Amino acid sequence: MSDIKLTYFNGRGLAEHIRYLLKYGNIAFEDIRIEQDNWPALKESTPFGQLPLYEENGKVASQSLAVARYIGKKINLAGDDEWQNLEIDSVADTLTDLRLKHYPFYQESDPEKKEKLKQSLLSETVPYYFERFEKFITKNSGYLAANKLTWVDFFFATTLDTLTRILGVNVSEKYEGSSKLKKKIEELPAVKTWIAARPETPF
Ligand SMILES: N[C@@H](CCC(=O)N[C@@H](CS)C(=O)NCC(=O)O)C(=O)O
């Protein structure tokens, strides 16, 4: 049996899709949550000074998407061939692009500037990406890539959850395929059980 540990801050963020995948794959893991106050002491000991960290039998890896891809392969949620894997990775990198676009809003403390950034995200960035995701979802029978459920659909669901929580607006409301896909992931029995049991956190 593997000894698996996932270390992150006390939030969903960039660890939650990994938690979903581990739960879906019925892979037991220790869900370690670091308080912000303890982070500076730990940071230097991590490979690139960032979380999440994935540990398996004493070996350590960083980068949440590399970890998701690795677990995806283990639990039969990768593509059937290298082209499908490329399609999956391409969507994953696009989701990262989208995530990076909300950081200036997240970090802004001036209320007026923050509101402007929010409006720009809602009127430009969200439609730009979600109109395109809708096309992918239509083309792939309700999923984002490879015409089947893959690990990137889990990352999509958690990214959508993050955006919705940070902006305080249901960003996928107008996008039927995206809403349905998020719901489909959240209603997978193992994920649903995890969502009901997970700690309530601010992010
Ligand atoms: N590309 C990395 C990004 C990781 C990342 O940005 N981690 C943030 C938390 S979401 C972090 O560790 N921040 C603390 C720091 O940089 O000191 C991944 O996907 O794992």
UniProtKB/TrEMBL annotation:
Q: Under which main EC class is this enzyme filed?
A: transferase
Q: Which SUPFAM superfamilies does the entry link to?
A: GST C-terminal domain-like (SSF47616), Thioredoxin-like (SSF52833)
- Spell out the reaction equation it catalyses: RX + glutathione = an S-substituted glutathione + a halide anion + H(+)
- Protein name (database record): glutathione transferase
What CDD domains does this protein map onto? Answer: GST_C_Sigma_like (cd03192), GST_N_Sigma_like (cd03039)
On the tree of life, the source organism's domain of life is Eukaryota
Domain GST C-terminal: where? 81-203
Q: Which GO terms describe its biological process?
A: glutathione metabolic process
